[in-house]
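Much of our argument rests on the idea that a fold can be written as discrete symbols. Part of our work consisted of pairing the sequence of a single chain with a tokenised description of its backbone. The amino acid sequence and the backbone structure tokens for this protein are reproduced below.
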Amino acid sequence: MEQRHPLPPFNIETAKQKVQLAEDAWNTKDPVKVSLAYTIDSEWRNRSSFVNGREEIVKLLTAKWEKEHQYKLKKELWAFTDNRIAVRFEYEYCNDQGEWFRAYGNENWEFDENGLMQTRYASINDVPIAATERRIF
């Protein structure tokens, strides 16, 4: 059986560990690697997109990172309970025109008993920034 440690129920240490593992995976910008942390039928809301399952996750992330260059993400644990974690995050990227943005957001995660994320709801807002205002390297 496929498992992703740490497993729920979470405590402060394991919740922080889960958040750091997610941050590390997303910063690889490898859609397949990222998708393996989610259940086969994982349900997502990412901005105004709704996707289901690893195949759609890979497709969404591939398109995302084709447009968001020099992407760098930082996540922070906000709250947790038995099998749920809430995070705040920010990331920076530049587009094809060389314009820089910082995206701010919140995610609500729900995990199955094997530590795979079965639900991810993300609210994200982008703010234009100057290249000199970057703070995530």
About this structure: The chain has a mean pLDDT of 98. The domain at 12-133 is CATH 3.10.450.50 (Nuclear Transport Factor 2; Chain: A,). Strands lie at 38-46, 49-52, 69-81, 84-94, 100-111, 117-129. Helices lie at 12-27, 31-35, 53-67.
